[in-house]
């Protein structure tokens, strides 16, 4: 997924929800034309993006809202972006500010401009791409976890467990594997602790909990919830 493209379009979509953002008719037409080009040629983002940014930059209210939102999106993972993106079954207007994300009631689609409608359609397409990628990630994780569990069923050596190729591939998945690992710990506590520590750099397990699998799992699950992970 092109993170820059998705986050830029999402920031624009969220900025357009601001009641103080109004485009002049020629900018509205230009924006609709640019977004239509993207809709037909989504992979031409690098060529089209400068024209899109030019429209944003020359509209003070839109630029202010866009510049306020963008830094927050830059810090978000795919799962968090999905929470903000429009969906087929939702019509809510969402806004992000300097403190948090706030959600507001729906506005009728009939009140949307042509550019807003095209932009929403683009984000729906990108949302589907992200969701598909997430499903592929889950399938990959489940396959590796099953392989590891089958291979290590008779082993009691931690070094052997954590050095297994399937275990190492899960670590290589990075942050995408964290909620999946936490989900596994909640389902059936087992030795995913080294993988979580390697990926996150955290270690919420207290000294008195070490060696107690259930307590270690509970410590990581509590940590995950405090960090905002969902699974």
Q: Secondary-structure map with pairings?
A:
Elements: H1 3-16, H2 25-40, H3 45-57, H4 60-74, H5 78-84, E1 92-96, E2 101-106, H6 114-151, H7 158-163, H8 165-172, H9 178-187, H10 193-200, H11 213-226
Antiparallel strand pairs: 1-2
Helix pairs in contact: 1-4, 1-6, 2-3, 2-6, 6-8, 8-10, 9-11
Beta content comes to under 5%
Relative helix content: 55-70%
Biggest sheet architecture: 2 strands, antiparallel
Q: Can you count the helices?
A: 11
H-E order: HHHHHEEHHHHHH
Spans where pLDDT lies below 50 across 5 or more residues: 90-110
Q: Tell me, rounded to a whole number, the average pLDDT.
A: 86
User: Structural class given helices, strands, pairing?
Assistant: mainly alpha
Radius of gyration from the alpha-carbon trace, in angstroms:
22 Å
Envelope shape:
elongated
Summary of the model, kept short:
With 231 residues, the protein is mainly alpha-helical. Helix content is 65%, strand content 5%. It has a two-stranded antiparallel sheet.
Describe this structure in words.
The protein is mostly helical. Helix content is about 65%, strand content about 5%. The protein contains eleven helices and two strands. It has helices spanning about 5-15, 25-40, 45-55, 60-75, 80-85, 115-150, 160-165, 165-170, 180-185, 195-200, 215-225; strands at about 90-95, 100-105. Strands 1-2 form a two-stranded antiparallel ribbon. Strand 1 and strand 2 (about 100-105) form a beta hairpin. It is elongated. The protein starts with a helix and ends in a 5-residue tail after the last helix. Mean pLDDT is about 85; it is low at about 90-110.
């Amino acid at each position: 997924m092109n993170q820059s493209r998705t986050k830029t379009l999402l920031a624009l979509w969220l900025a357009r929800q601001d009641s103080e953002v109004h485009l002049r008719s020629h900018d509205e037409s230009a924006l609709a034309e640019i977004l239509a080009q993207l809709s037909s040629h989504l992979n031409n983002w690098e060529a089209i993006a400068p024209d899109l940014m030019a429209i944003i930059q020359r509209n003070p209210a839109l630029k202010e809202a866009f510049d306020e939102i963008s830094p927050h999106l830059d810090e978000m993972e795919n799962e968090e972006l999905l929470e903000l993106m429009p969906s087929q079954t939702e019509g809510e207007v969402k806004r992000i500010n300097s403190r948090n994300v706030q959600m507001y009631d729906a506005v009728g689609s009939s009140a949307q401009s042509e550019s807003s409608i095209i932009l929403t359609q683009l984000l729906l397409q990108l949302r589907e791409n992200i969701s598909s990628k997430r499903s592929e990630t889950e399938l990959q994780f489940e396959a590796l976890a099953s392989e590891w569990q089958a291979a290590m069923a008779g082993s009691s050596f931690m070094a052997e467990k954590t050095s297994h190729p399937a275990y190492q591939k899960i670590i290589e998945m990075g942050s995408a594997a964290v909620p999946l690992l936490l989900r596994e710990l909640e389902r059936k506590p087992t030795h995913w602790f080294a993988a979580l520590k390697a990926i996150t750099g955290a270690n919420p397990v207290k000294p008195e909990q070490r060696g107690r699998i259930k307590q270690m799992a509970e410590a990581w699950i509590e940590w995950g919830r405090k960090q905002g992970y969902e699974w």
